[in-house]
Structures are given as C-alpha cells and as structure tokens.
Write a structure and sequence with these properties.
With 192 residues, the protein is α+β, with helices and mostly antiparallel strands. The chain is 31% helix and 22% strand. Strands 2-3-4-5-6-7 form a six-stranded antiparallel sheet, with helices on one face. Strands 1-8-9 form a three-stranded antiparallel sheet. Helix 4 runs antiparallel to helix 5. The protein starts with a helix and ends in a 6-residue tail after the last helix.
Length: 192
C-alpha cells in the first residue's frame, strides 16, 4: 500500500525531464572508440561531467565521490549499422532510457515502475489528454474550446485529415463534461 502511494506521485512524464536517452547520445555522435567528454549544462543538472566511449558511459554526479558506470552494448540492425543500448547499473537490464532517482540514473523497473500520467486519469480525462497532445502536434490549442488548428506546413493532407478525425472523435465525448473545468491542472508538457 505504501509503495503505491510513493510511486503514485512519480510519473514517467516527471522523470523524463531528467533522463539519459541512448538514442539522443547516438544522434549527437558521441559513441566513438576514444573517450568524449561532455559538459552537461541544463539537460542533466545533477551530472557534473559525462565521459562517453563506445562501450561505457561514466557519470560524475555532484552528490557522489565514485562515478557511475553505465555499460553500453550494440545490436546489429537488419539493413546495416548498429543500435546502442544502455544497461541499468543496478539490474543490468538492456534499456534505451535511464531516469534520475535513488542517487543516480536507473531503469524504470529499478525505480519502482512509475506510471504514465494517463494511467492516473479516468476514461474522459484520458480522452482529453490524448486530444490535447494531438492538438499540440498540429500547433497547439485547447480541446473542445478552440477550433482545430490549420494544417502545419509540410504535413501531408491525408495525415492531417486522420488527426482531425481522431480529435473530433475524442472531443465528441467531452462536450459538457466536468473534465473541461479541471483539465489545465493536470496536463504536463510532453518531453521525450
């Protein structure tokens, strides 16, 4: 019972603000055969220094004397190339993201399986949340209250029509609902 109360306050959206994503590091091109030192600024506030090599990540955290070591492994892709994976320092599970918690960076399972924001909501609140996030992809506006934004530049018309149809379907059940009164309180920005 206490586990649910403790974990209920944490959500993946809150933890994703300070997480290490191996895909982000791969896009930055830091996995090389020699050490690359990164000076994380605002992205990882708890990290003083990050050293990255092809098979290892070392994190110097401000509250620890010994650096945290994160093992990196690689899998082959079907059409060439390779994909990096981090291994959780605690359980050695192969994962793509490590979240800040327990004095370091660990996987979702080691942090007690925090839930997603949508899992805490009722059916109508989930519909509102989904409509809100779809509207954000179109340029942003409030569900049910505002008109659907015009098609963004370079979005295909067919994709736009599908998104509009999905938004209209979700908002049909929200008309006159109490969710509209409380909605701005529970929506967090989507950070991934």
């Amino acid at each position: 019972m206490t586990r649910n109360k403790c974990v209920a306050s944490l959500t993946i959206e809150k933890l994703a603000v300070d997480c290490i994503d191996v895909r982000e590091l791969q896009r930055a091109g830091v996995f090389r055969d020699h050490w690359v030192t990164l000076q994380p600024s605002f992205r990882w506030p708890a990290v003083d220094r990050m050293r990255v090599a092809r098979y290892l990540i070392q994190l110097d955290l401000g509250n620890q004397v010994v650096p945290q070591q994160i093992r990196v492994s690689w899998t082959r892709c079907n059409y060439g190339g390779a994909r990096p994976w981090m291994h959780c320092p605690h359980c050695q599970r192969r994962i793509a993201r490590l979240f800040k918690g327990m004095g370091g960076y660990f996987c979702r399972a080691c942090l007690g399986h925090p839930i997603y924001e949508s899992q805490r909501r009722s059916r109508k609140a989930r519909a509102y949340l989904q409509a809100y996030r779809l509207r954000q992809r179109l340029g942003g506006s409030r569900p049910v209250i505002d008109r659907i934004p015009p098609r963004p530049y370079r979005m295909k018309r067919r994709r736009y029509r599908k998104l509009v149809a999905r938004i209209e379907f979700l908002e049909r059940s929200l008309s006159g609902s109490r969710v509209l009164q409380h909605a701005p309180q529970f929506i967090l920005p989507l950070i991934y």
